[in-house]
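testing teh design pipeline on a random one, pls ignore if ur not involved
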């Protein structure tokens, strides 16, 4: 039994090293050798858990998803436009943790566009995100706070707007401080009111 505990602990250590490499070097710097160096171990140890770079990248995407879910606050008590604003704000790089996660996601896009398996994972992730936003859009439409029409189109536009803010803030955080990001999001939602 102790061997399993050691194995699980070692896998957690390797996962933590994967995340640190991602956070500092992005997907472009994610290699078996870089993870081994971060861990202070051999590449043989890393390949014991991740036999290929592809397996390492898939695990890294799973880690990013886990870290992202940990930052999503409860929307209990929020409704319609208020809940939608809160859900979209969680995507913005407003804290060191959310900035780190966004850096990881943006750096993953190149790898995902070039690889069918990774592209499918990203496509599924975006589908889940839009599915979480859709009921909030539908509520806001029913309340008269968003224009009528296809909620899927509105969800897609809001996701694109939010990611546009993310990318701009990552490249120029001084021009897009936290208060401005939140104001731009609020102003955009208010401008959509019928």
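output:
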């Amino acid at each position: 039994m102790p061997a399993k505990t050691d194995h699980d602990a070692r896998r957690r250590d390797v996962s933590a090293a994967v995340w640190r490499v991602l956070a500092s070097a992005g997907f472009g710097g994610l290699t078996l050798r870089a993870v081994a160096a971060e861990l202070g171990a051999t590449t043989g140890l890393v390949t014991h858990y991740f036999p290929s770079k592809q397996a390492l990248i898939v695990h890294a995407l799973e880690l990013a998803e886990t870290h992202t879910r940990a930052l999503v606050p409860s929307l209990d008590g929020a409704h319609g436009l208020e809940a939608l604003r809160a859900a979209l704000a969680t995507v913005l790089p407003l804290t060191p943790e959310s900035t780190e996660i966004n850096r990881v996601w943006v750096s993953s896009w190149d790898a995902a566009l070039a690889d069918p398996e990774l592209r499918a994972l990203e496509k599924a992730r975006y589908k889940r995100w839009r599915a979480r936003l859709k009921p909030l859009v539908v509520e806001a439409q029913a309340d008269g706070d968003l224009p009528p029409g296809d909620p899927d189109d509105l969800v897609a536009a809001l996701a694109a707007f939010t990611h546009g803010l993310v990318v701009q803030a990552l490249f120029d955080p001084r021009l897009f401080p936290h208060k401005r990001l939140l104001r731009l999001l609020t102003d955009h939602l208010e401008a959509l009111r019928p």
